Amino acid sequence: MKNLLFFTSPIGLGHASRDIVIASKLDVDMTFVTGGGATRLISDYGFKVKNLYKHDGFEVDERGELKHTVRWLMNYWSYYKKCKVIAESVIKENKPDLIVSDEDFASIAIAQELGIPNVIVTDVLKTKFTQGSMSFIEKRMNSVMRKMIDNSNLVIVPTEGQDLGNIVHVGPIVRGVDLDRESLRKRFGFNKKTILVSVGGTDSGKFLVNKAIETYRNIRDTIGADMIVVSGPSLSIDVKEEGVRCIGYTTNLHEMIYACDLLVSLAGRSTIDEAIAYGTPAIFIPIKNHFEQEENAKQNGFSFDDIYRLKDLVLKKLYDERHEIIIRDGANKASSSILNLLT
How does strand 262-266 pair with strand 154-157? Predict the structure, then answer.
């Protein structure tokens, strides 16, 4: 049986959640390499995984603004070099037939140095964190990333778009559900209209949790709804608010998104894709100055400043009609493209 190493970025849980779907369709001897909360999620879905990466994440202040972007980029460059050492050791030990990387470019660098076929999964082909005189650091990093993308056997982009060369757009990749919505609502105890607050796998979303709970407190008696806060594996929240229930880590956020009446979330790609796929009304608030989240939010009609009118948005969106489920074929396209490289 073919041997595949799957390197998953440990920043948040979005990479892991879509990689789980791809991996479930690959009948190969496969081991994941990642770190943090992503390790736990991948393991809970039954895959072999090595917990080897450690990333400190973003520095986001209490107002929701990404701070010290240049310092973060320097730290990321240091993290990248450490990951290269780890990836080289794992790759040489396992001797894989193929390496798949979801935005872990350290493993791709080693794969290309050693001449091992490699696949990149990414929805970011260029970063835009910095401006001004210090942007040369980011330009250097983008140049290195662009070279890896150009030299990869296959680049899978989980959005709609035009294929070009080795870049293939497969569309959104989301996890499926086995139960209907009403059954899920009973399982989760969603007895009233339910607002779900999700802030991903890092601690960067504390500002949104605080604002969402404050908003809920002001309109609770008007809307007659409950609020569920999914704080994730990295953020500790002590909630003592009537009508608010906090859940830390969960393996089935996508099912909760389907079951709830309104999602309030950071603007991560995977969470957005799952909300759209399951037809759930949603409000997406990006981290300020986080270029990827700001672009994701803009594509869906939101911006960071919407946090200041969250009350009005919740009152409106809570009563929006749901759309029908639309699960696209992104995971099948991605897995088929990967398997083609192993034949």
Answer: unpaired
Quote the distance between the C-alpha of residue 91 and its chain's center: 25
Q: Which residues pair with 284 in a beta bridge?
A: 265
Read off the tokens for 21: 């779907």
- Supply φ then ψ for residue 29, to 5 degrees: -80, 110
| Cα→Cα distances 301→100, 122, 267, 332, Å | 33, 23, 11, 29
Architecture of the structural domain at 181-317: 3-Layer(aba) Sandwich (3.40)
For domain 3-173+329-342, the question of CATH label 3.40.50.2000 is answered with: yes
| Residue burial 273-294, b: 16+ Cβ < 10 Å; e: rest | bbbbbbbbbbbbbbbbbbbbbb
236-252, pLDDT tens digit by residue?
Answer: 777 788 899 999 899 99
Q: Would you say the pTM of this structure is higher than 0.90?
A: yes
Tokens 């920043």, residue located: 11
d(CA 50, CA 93): 13
Q: Tell which residue, 17, 19, 54, 18, has the closest CA to residue 34.
A: 54
- What's the pLDDT score for residue 143? 85
Domain ranges (residues) in the chain = 3-173+329-342, 181-317
